């Protein structure tokens, strides 16, 4: 497939490598940062586009990948969707519900086909965990959790100007940007949430909206309880995600906050737990993490099958992030 890129920063390279690995090509790219764009164009041997050229080039693409900071997406989304070209949009879809509603209106107006980049949902270890849960062997959900801790942007000696995440004009914080993954993963295992209570903390006083730590307790609509803990200001890291059901339990474990190394499970009638090793490391191989979701998108576009993480999923999790922030700010439990 022929793919056009808007936003050629860190994750943009992984997207483009995934496209090439699948047998596709990058036909053009745009970024406000001309130095970054030139480096990208060199690796992928593609045209370096000016903003005004996008409208002419977008119709030549089989899909467009949009991975600019989340506050800088609406005009690009309109250009892509109005040309009836499928859109791969990075998460979070936006940082305000107003922008999310504008995206929904565009999707409806143009009959848009959109995948939101919840890449962890497609990683083989999580797919295994999801299969175990959906097969019913673990029973009904009782207790789910996700705990991931490690060093994020702004930790230690890292410069605040290194990323949009710690730029006061663009920052949205971990609860909106990254806990979006937890909301996506956990609701895929236990369904929608009914209530949420959260506390967040920021460790960088000059960017107070950049929360770097979060702790949440949640009640799912089906009665299961859910806890989420995460930090971007921890020098030591771990990742565990678990499902405790009425008939068995499963746990995904990782060396650091985005590593998906192993899935273990044990049902009541098993003597010992069974383990599946993946050693899938985001830190060591971010490109492969992104590859799996592109493969899914290709399948959907080629065969007309359903997108697992469409725009509606991005809107749903943004609403959960907003509810968590409201809970923390007002010191209340939010009913959803
Ligand atoms: N799904 C995942 O696992 C995953 C992983 C990393 C990042 N992301 C998401 O991808 C997005 C980008 O993150 P990143 O880490 O690549 O950030 P980055 O800062 O490395 O890249 C962002 C790029 O956007 C460009 N940009 C900024 N404003 C622009 C504008 N108005 N028009 C065009 N280009 C513009 C910047 O110059 C930069 O090259 C974020 O939403 C982030 O949450 C997702």
List the helices and strands and how they pair.
Layout lengths: L1 E5 L3 H12 L3 E6 L3 H11 L2 E2 L5 H4 L5 E4 L7 H9 L4 E3 L7 H14 L3 E3 L7 H12 L5 E11 L22 H4 L1 H12 L2 E9 L11 E8 L4 E7 L1 E13 L2 E7 L4 E9 L6 E8 L4 H18 L7 H20 L3 E2 L1
Bound molecules: nicotinamide-adenine-dinucleotide.
Class based on secondary structure composition and strand pairing: alpha/beta
Report the CATH architecture of the largest domain: 2-Layer Sandwich
CATH C-level label of the largest domain: Alpha Beta
Looking across the biggest beta sheet, what order are the strands in?
14-13-12-11-7-10-9-8-15
Gross morphology:
globular
How does the major sheet shape up? 9 strands, mixed
CATH superfamily heading of the largest domain: Dihydrodipicolinate Reductase, domain 2
* Bound chemical compounds: nicotinamide-adenine-dinucleotide
- The SSE order reads EHEHEHEHEHEHEHHEEEEEEEHHE
Sequence stretches where pLDDT stays below 50 over 5 or more residues: none
Rounded to the nearest angstrom, the radius of gyration is 20 Å
Total helix count?
10
How many structural domains does the protein architecture include?
Answer: 2
Instruction: Round the mean pLDDT to the nearest integer and report it.
Output: 97
The percentage of residues in β strands lies in: 25-35%
The percent of residues in helical segments reads 25-40%
Measured between the Cα atoms of the first and last residue, the distance is 40 Å
Number of strands: 15
Properties at a glance:
336 residues, alpha/beta, Rossmann fold, 9-stranded mixed sheet, 6-stranded parallel sheet, binds nicotinamide-adenine-dinucleotide
């Amino acid at each position: 497939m022929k793919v056009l890129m808007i936003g050629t920063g860190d994750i943009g390279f992984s997207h483009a490598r995934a496209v090439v690995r699948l047998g596709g090509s990058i036909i053009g790219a745009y970024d406000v940062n001309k130095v970054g764009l030139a480096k990208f164009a060199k690796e992928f041997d593609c045209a370096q586009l000016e903003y005004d050229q996008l409208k002419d080039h977008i119709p030549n693409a089989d899909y467009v990948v949009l991975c600019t900071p989340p506050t800088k997406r609406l005009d690009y989304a309109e250009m892509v969707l109005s040309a009836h070209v499928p859109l791969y949009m990075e998460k979070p879809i936006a940082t305000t519900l107003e922008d999310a509603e504008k995206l929904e209106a565009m999707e409806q107006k143009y009959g848009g086909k959109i995948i939101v980049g919840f890449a962890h949902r497609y990683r083989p270890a999580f797919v295994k965990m999801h299969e175990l849960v959906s097969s019913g062997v673990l029973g009904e959900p009782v207790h789910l959790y996700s705990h991931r801790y490690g060093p994020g942007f702004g930790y230690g000696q890292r410069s605040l100007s290194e990323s949009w995440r710690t730029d006061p004009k663009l920052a949205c914080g971990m609860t909106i940007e990254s806990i979006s993954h937890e909301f996506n993963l956990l609701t895929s295992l236990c369904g929608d949430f009914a209530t949420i209570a959260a506390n967040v903390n920021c460790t960088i006083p000059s960017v107070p909206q950049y929360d770097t730590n979060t702790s949440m307790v949640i009640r799912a609509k089906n009665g299961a309880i859910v806890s989420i803990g995460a930090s971007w200001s921890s020098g030591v890291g771990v990742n565990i995600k678990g499902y405790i059901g009425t008939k068995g339990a499963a746990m995904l474990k990782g060396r650091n906050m985005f590593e998906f190394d192993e899935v273990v499970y044990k049902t009541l009638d098993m003597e010992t737990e069974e383990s599946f090793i993946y050693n899938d490391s985001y830190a060591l191989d971010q490109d492969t993490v992104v590859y799996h979701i592109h493969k899914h998108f290709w399948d959907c576009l080629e065969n007309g099958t359903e997108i697992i993480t469409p725009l509606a999923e991005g809107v749903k999790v943004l609403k959960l992030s907003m509810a968590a922030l409201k809970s923390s700010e007002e010191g209340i439990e939010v009913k959803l």
